[in-house]
Each structure stands twice: as C-alpha cells, then as structure tokens.
C-alpha cells in the first residue's frame, strides 16, 4: 500500500512489479482459459454487432479493480465495462484521486475470433496526467511497461521508436471502418493521399506498441475512450514519439480533444499526419 507521505512516483518505484504481476494473474485466471474456448453464452453485444463483450472482459476487469485498488488504497478504477454499466464512473478522470484506467481485453473482436492480437491495458493517471502504463499481450506473452520520465520497455528491453526510413510512404493505422461513424470516416478520409499508407487498425494497444517499437509510423484515431489510449500514448512518448490533436495540442485522457488525433514515432511524422488530418477532404 502507499505510505501517507509517499508520492505516486515513489509508490511506482516500490510496487510497479506488483502491478505487472496483478495484470499477469488476471489474464491467467480470466482471459487465457477462455481464449479459443468461448461458449456462445459468454459473448454479448453492447452497442451493436461489432461492439462485443465477453465473460473474460467482465471478470478480468473485476479482478483488476480489486487487486489494483488494494495495491494503491484511495485510488479508483475507470474500466471499460464499469463505464458501460455506469457512465458516471468516467468522471473520476477529472478529479484529484489517482485513477487506474483499465481495458481488460483490448481487441475483443480478435479475442472472440481466436486471433492472438489482443492485450490487457492498464494505466495510472493523476490529475489528468498518465504516469505509468502496462500493456500485456497475454497470448503472445509479451509485456510492455512505461513510467513517465523513465522510458518504455518491452520484456525488459528499452524501446526507442526512432524516425521512419526516408523516402517511403508513412504507414498509419487508423480507426477500423466497422467502428466509425460516417462523420468519423469523412474526417479520416484525408489520410488517403500521396506519401501516406493508411490501414485499418487492430487492437489499439498493440498498434501503439508497434509505434513505440518503430514498426509502425503512426496511428490516427477518431475516438477518445481513455482505456484505449492512455497506456499506449505513454509508451509512445517514452519511446521518443509524440501525439497531437487537430489543434496541435497533445491528446488529453480527460477528454475534450479536437479529433481525429495522431500518435507517431517522432515529432516530424506526427506533424505530417496532423497536417493531413486538418486538410478538408
């Protein structure tokens, strides 16, 4: 637990490994046993046929809510499934209390279809700033972590995104058509232009990890849900990348962003993608 006089940074220095262990245990108990073994009654729709939730999502989030709260007493959890049940939960991001931002299964569609391209995302934020993040691709047994000011790591190896190779098209993963409104599709249409090579994204968390690894040049997304973005944005930042909204400001997990926004492996790429996104299509 956190000491009364201890800062969040000091807490992380002592207990970051315990957070990682909590994420691993939640995945081992609730997610991996259901991977490629889901029964029909364990899968439900939320807003529509492309917005799925499974027992793995629900039970992993409940376990993480309990375990993370115990690690940092006085903190609160903003989880995707809790917010779906009660949208008022999201308001905790605006407060002064430390907030765990949780997506138990990012890439639920992939998970349901037996594809290993899903992950568990956890971030710790305070007063609107993301301080630490944990990204666990359980089916691949890959674990990425980041602490603000201390770097980003994948399985203990430092991540440095670096600039893209000069002279080639920039590969940009963008909001999947199945998950975008007509208005959002219109806003993203500018990406189909010379010098860019857009493609539909999979798990947002794994796309952010690809940017932090220098395997993907940028992402461009049209929605704000903090659980999809908080962990990955910090990974990208700590790997040397950056993120920009349409107004040229960094993305805020508390909301109110000018969308779409981009996160990229270096500042020049972010500016290029943001500039294109501002161009009327």
From TrEMBL:
**For this protein, what reaction is catalysed?**
a myo-inositol phosphate + H2O = myo-inositol + phosphate
Q: Which InterPro entries match?
A: Inositol_monoP_metal-BS, Inositol_monophosphatase-like, Inositol_monophosphatase_CS
Keyword Hydrolase present in the record's keywords: the answer is yes
E.C. number: 3.1.3.25
PROSITE patterns from the xrefs? IMP_1, IMP_2
Q: Tell me the enzyme class.
A: hydrolase
* Keyword Kinase part of the UniProt annotation: no
Q: Which SUPFAM superfamilies match?
A: Carbohydrate phosphatase
Q: Which domain of life is it from?
A: Bacteria
Keywords annotated in UniProt: Hydrolase, Magnesium, Metal-binding
Know the name of this protein? Answer: inositol-phosphate phosphatase
Upper lineage ranks?
Answer: Bacteria, Bacillati, Actinomycetota, Actinomycetes, Kitasatosporales
């Amino acid at each position: 637990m956190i000491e009364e006089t201890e800062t969040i940074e000091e807490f992380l220095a002592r207990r970051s490994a315990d957070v990682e262990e909590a994420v691993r245990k939640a995945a081992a108990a609730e997610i991996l046993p259901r991977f490629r073994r889901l029964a029909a009654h364990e899968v439900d729709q939320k807003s529509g046929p492309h917005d799925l939730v499974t027992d793995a999502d629900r039970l992993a989030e409940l376990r993480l809510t309990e375990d993370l709260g115990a690690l940092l007493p006085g903190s609160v959890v903003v989880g995707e499934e809790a917010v779906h049940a009660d949208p008022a939960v999201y308001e905790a991001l605006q407060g002064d209390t430390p907030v765990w931002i949780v997506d138990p299964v990012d890439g639920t569609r992939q998970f349901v279809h037996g594809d290993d391209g899903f992950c568990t995302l956890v971030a710790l934020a305070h007063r609107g700033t993301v301080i630490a993040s944990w990204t666990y691709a359980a089916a691949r047994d890959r674990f990425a972590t980041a602490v603000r000011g201390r770097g980003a790591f994948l399985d203990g190896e430092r991540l440095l995104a670096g600039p893209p190779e000069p002279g080639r098209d920039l590969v940009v993963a963008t909001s999947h058509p199945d998950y975008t409104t007509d208005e959002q599709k219109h806003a993203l249409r500018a990406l189909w232009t010379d010098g860019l090579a857009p493609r539909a994204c999979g798990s947002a968390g794994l796309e952010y990890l690809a940017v932090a690894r220098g395997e993907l040049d940028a992402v461009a997304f049209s929605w704000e849900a903090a659980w999809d973005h908080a962990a990955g944005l910090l990974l990208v930042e700590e790997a040397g990348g950056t993120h920009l909204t349409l107004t040229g400001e960094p993305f805020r997990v508390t909301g109110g962003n000018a969308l779409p926004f981009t996160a990229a492996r270096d500042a020049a790429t972010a500016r290029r993608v943001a500039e294109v996104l501002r161009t009327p299509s």
